[in-house]
Amino acid sequence: MLINKHIDIPYQNLPEESQFGVLPLSAFKGEFSNLPHRHDYFQIIWFIKAKGRHMVDFEWYDVEDNMIFFLRPGQVHQVDCESSGYSIYFTEQFYFTNRQDKETLFDFTTLFDTWKGYNPITITSSNSNSLIGLIDLMIREKENLDYHCFAILKHYLSAFLLLTEKEKMHRDANYMPSSAYDARVVQLRRLLEQHFRAEHQVIFYANSFSLTPKRLNEITKDCTGRTVTELLHDRITLEAKRQLSFSRKSIKEICYELGFEDPAYFSRFFKNNTALSPQEFRDMMFK
């Protein structure tokens, strides 16, 4: 892997300060673009023409023309290819400005969920033309900083996301569209992201919905195929892998940062979920 073990996982700054933007991929060339890095916003990377590979959370993908990657805030990725295309970036606050938006706009978050495995989407040429049209509309509308601009941009973005979800449904028979998700599972994802470091018990998350742990587990099992405990352990393990691979923190520091009081227990937890000890995993990443 192309890892620099002398720096912590950096956050790449936006090319421009905004809650929404669409730019050619060349605009993201910078200090960290060829190193493992992360962002604090949602990002859609569309490789229209590309040759090489792209790493997302320890998995390398051979990049093809018309391939789209969806990245959540905090996901570690690294681009190792020659490419042209576009990147759309936005914050959750931009998309869901108020409660009414949460009820009326397409819930994009399911496209970015990794609970059933992460995979990019390859777009057909017919849909590619439609998406290019939406990109052009977004670029033109962003220049109109008037009262209606953000609302129009949100709906163009919704159309882009819906078209890519439609493509994903056609290619993946096991993909569950957003309409099949229970809204509580979407909210649980947000809660896990906010609290996974400090709250390791299902009762905490069940209480947030005024449900029993058993009932919340039933809901998540129906929608994701996994229990709350499994989802929580997946998220803790992923963050441990990120820190072990891309930071200078000691194993003990990572243990405490992830809410464990006993480094020995953290090591057992990590090995149960990866079949490797934290030190073995770190050594493997730096071979």
Automatic annotation (TrEMBL):
Keyword flag Transit peptide: no
Keywords in alphabetical order: DNA-binding, Transcription, Transcription regulation
InterPro entries: AraC-bd, Homeodomain-like_sf, HTH-like, HTH_AraC, RmlC-like_jellyroll, Tscrpt_reg_AraC-type_HTH
Residue intervals of the HTH araC/xylS-type domain: 186-284
Entry-linked SMART domains: HTH_ARAC
Alphabetized GO MF terms: DNA-binding transcription factor activity; sequence-specific DNA binding
The UniProt record lists the keyword Protein transport: no
Record's protein name: Helix-turn-helix domain-containing protein
